[in-house]
């Protein structure tokens, strides 16, 4: 060295004289995993062609601290163009590097959270803050809503693999039984214990617990409550405010991801439960609608027997010499019985069609459906053919626009539009000609169809309810209140959506997105 600026002492801890006394000192300071790369730049010290270069390397300073250097170096030539040596400058970029690492870690955590569990996410978080604070231990606890109980979530990978055999993950225990690290709960702020062994209130560590030299613990606070406590330990040098800042920034990102993940996991659990319940319900409905059929057949059979018996009584009645008064009374009760049988028959056949509908709804959820590319204009012609009788009866005008195709099960999509157009005909306004319009358009990869009528319309308060099983606005009306439930279920099975817009007294628009 010819000259070293005094700032080398500020950055490296060694004075210019120490560098001059030991020309290899700079090389020895490079962190071992970067040493080879750094040495290569100087491999041919005298090569005039060695270009200008710039490298970023970690060094270990005289006090044992790690700092990052941006090392720039260029060859120097004398007046005759002879290689005369090198000119170097070193910039301390530790803070910039640290900032970049914290930002990169934040992004890594967010990315990792997308497809990992809460425990895995917290373990990565601990591993990351362990590296950023040069620690050897990391642990994470949730603080329960009562603020008096803790649940251990996880340790860092290094703690688990090399330091600690007292796993205890998932363990609940009271705050007042925990170690000195809960000082951060009582004080509601980060706490540093750089002098762990001399703490008078420490409780001693459980069997298998990693030995603690120093620790930094941070509470995560949301509103009035502390929601989590996490800590790192055993940094080689003292923890300081910079470590606190780093951990707090990452702890916030990690906690937000935990909250999101917990909500996602709860939703997924609910969905699984819901699916199982739905399947169970569908099976019950299917068995019930099947089993209720035999008593129904019985009722229908016995009402036939009653009918025949009545006919017998009438024939005997004619041949018997009874008083006209008795005859009249008997004739009246026969008439009443016939009316009752008629009601029984009507109710039985209504119950039969309800059971048919129920069975149909439950089967919709049970069978696998095959889908194919459907030409919707062709499908709509078939639907209208099937509704020819009803549309002629209503003297309806049905306009069908050019429709986009879609992926679906032909039988079910036919049934869906049969039900919607059937309703448009059924609920037309008797005071004006029935006009129905069927249209559709593409929305990205989806197809949206609309069945619009100028019928009686649906009052706003009923618009949500009509898709429910057996729901009819006019309970006395023809039909079973099943058509829209079946339609809705078909759309659901196709992962689509269905909704209604209606102006009461003017008409309705039923939309289907497939
Ligand atoms: P159903 O027609 O057998 O009663 P749905 O499930 O098909 O059963 O319909 C449920 C109820 O929704 C009907 O009773 C009717 O009150 C109302 N509704 C359905 N479609 C229309 C429509 N296009 N216009 C007016 N009301 C309708």
Q: Please identify the structural class as seen in this structure.
A: alpha+beta
> If strands are numbered along the chain, what order do they take across the biggest sheet?
6-5-4-9-8-7
CA gyration radius, whole angstroms: 41 Å
Largest sheet: 6 strands, antiparallel
Q: Uncertain spans, ≥5 residues at pLDDT below 50? A: none
Number of helices: 15
Beta strand count: 16
Give every kind of bound small molecule, once each. Answer: adenosine-5'-diphosphate
What would you call the shape? elongated
- What proportion strand? 15-25%
What distance separates the N and C termini? 77 Å
Fraction in helix: 40-55%
Average predicted confidence as pLDDT: 88
Question: Secondary structure elements and their pairing?
Answer:
Elements: H1 7-12, H2 16-21, H3 25-29, H4 32-41, E1 53-60, E2 66-77, E3 83-92, H5 94-113, H6 118-132, E4 137-143, E5 149-155, H7 157-163, E6 172-174, H8 183-187, E7 191-193, E8 215-222, E9 225-233, H9 241-291, H10 293-319, H11 324-366, E10 372-374, H12 376-386, H13 388-393, E11 397-400, E12 406-408, H14 410-426, E13 435-443, E14 446-453, H15 483-493, E15 497-503, E16 507-513
Helix pairs in contact: 5-6, 5-9, 6-9, 9-11, 10-11, 11-15, 12-14, 14-15
Bound molecules: adenosine-5'-diphosphate.
Adenosine-5'-diphosphate (ADP) binds next to α14 and α15.
Can you offer a commentary on this structure?
It is a single chain. This protein has 514 residues and is of the alpha+beta class. It has helices at residues 7-12, 16-21, 25-29, 32-41, 94-113, 118-132, 157-163, 183-187, 241-291, 293-319, 324-366, 376-386, 388-393, 410-426, 483-493, and strands at 53-60, 66-77, 83-92, 137-143, 149-155, 172-174, 191-193, 215-222, 225-233, 372-374, 397-400, 406-408, 435-443, 446-453, 497-503, 507-513. Helix 5 (94-113) runs antiparallel to helix 6 (118-132), helix 6 (118-132) runs antiparallel to helix 9 and helix 12 packs across helix 14. The model has no long low-confidence stretch (mean pLDDT 88). It binds adenosine-5'-diphosphate. Adenosine-5'-diphosphate (ADP) binds at residues 419, 423-424, 426-427, 453, 455-458, 466, 471-474, 477, 479-485, 508.
């Amino acid at each position: 060295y010819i000259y070293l600026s005094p700032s080398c002492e500020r950055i490296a801890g060694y004075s210019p004289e120490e560098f001059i006394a030991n020309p290899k000192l700079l090389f020895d300071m490079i962190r071992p995993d970067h040493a080879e790369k750094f040495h290569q730049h100087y491999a041919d010290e005298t090569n005039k062609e060695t270009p200008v270069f710039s490298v970023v390397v970690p060094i270990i300073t005289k006090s044992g601290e790690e700092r990052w250097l941006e090392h720039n170096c260029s060859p120097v030539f004398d007046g005759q163009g002879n290689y005369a040596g090198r000119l170097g400058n070193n910039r301390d970029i530790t803070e910039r590097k640290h900032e970049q690492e914290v930002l990169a870690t934040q992004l890594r955590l967010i990315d990792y959270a997308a497809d990992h569990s809460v425990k895995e996410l917290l373990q990565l978080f601990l591993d990351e803050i362990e590296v950023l604070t040069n620690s050897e231990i990391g642990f994470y606890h949730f603080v329960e809503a009562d603020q008096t109980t803790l649940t251990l979530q996880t340790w860092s990978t290094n703690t688990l693999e090399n330091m600690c055999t007292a796993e205890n993950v998932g363990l609940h225990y009271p705050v007042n039984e925990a170690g000195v690290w809960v000082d951060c709960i009582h004080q509601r702020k980060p706490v540093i214990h750089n002098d762990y062994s001399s703490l008078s209130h420490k409780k001693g560590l459980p069997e298998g617990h990693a030995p603690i030299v120093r620790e930094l613990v941070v509470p995560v606070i949301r509103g009035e409550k502390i929601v989590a406590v996490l800590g790192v330990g055993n940094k080689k040098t003292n923890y300081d405010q910079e470590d606190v800042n780093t951990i707090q920034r990452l702890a916030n990102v990690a906690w937000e991801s935990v909250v999101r993940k917990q909500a996602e996991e709860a939703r997924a659990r609910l969905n699984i439960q819901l699916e199982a319940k739905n399947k169970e319900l569908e099976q019950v409905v299917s068995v019930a609608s099947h089993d209720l059929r035999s008593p129904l057949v019985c009722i229908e059979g016995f009402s036939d027997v009653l009918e025949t018996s009545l006919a017998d009584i009438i024939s005997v009645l004619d041949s018997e010499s009874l008083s006209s008064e008795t005859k009249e009374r008997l004739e009246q009760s026969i008439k009443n019985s016939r009316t009752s049988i008629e009601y029984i028959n009507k109710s039985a056949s209504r119950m039969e069609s309800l059971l048919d509908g129920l069975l149909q709804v439950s089967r919709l959820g049970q069978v696998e459906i095959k889908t194919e590319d459907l030409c919707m204009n062709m499908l709509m012609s078939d639907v209208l053919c099937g509704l020819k009788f009803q549309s002629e009866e209503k003297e309806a005008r049905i306009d069908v626009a050019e429709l986009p195709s879609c992926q679906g099960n032909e039988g079910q999509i036919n049934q869906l539009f049969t039900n919607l157009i059937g309703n448009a005909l059924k609920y037309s306004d008797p005071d004006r000609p029935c006009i129905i319009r069927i249209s559709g358009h593409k929305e990205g990869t989806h197809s949206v169809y609309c069945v619009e009528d100028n019928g009686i319309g649906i009052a706003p308060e009923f618009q949500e309810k009509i898709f429910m099983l057996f729901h009819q606005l006019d309970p006395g009306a023809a039909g079973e209140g099943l058509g829209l439930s079946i339609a809705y279920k078909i759309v659901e099975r196709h992962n689509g959506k269905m909704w209604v817009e209606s102006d009461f007294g003017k008409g309705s628009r039923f939309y289907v997105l497939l």
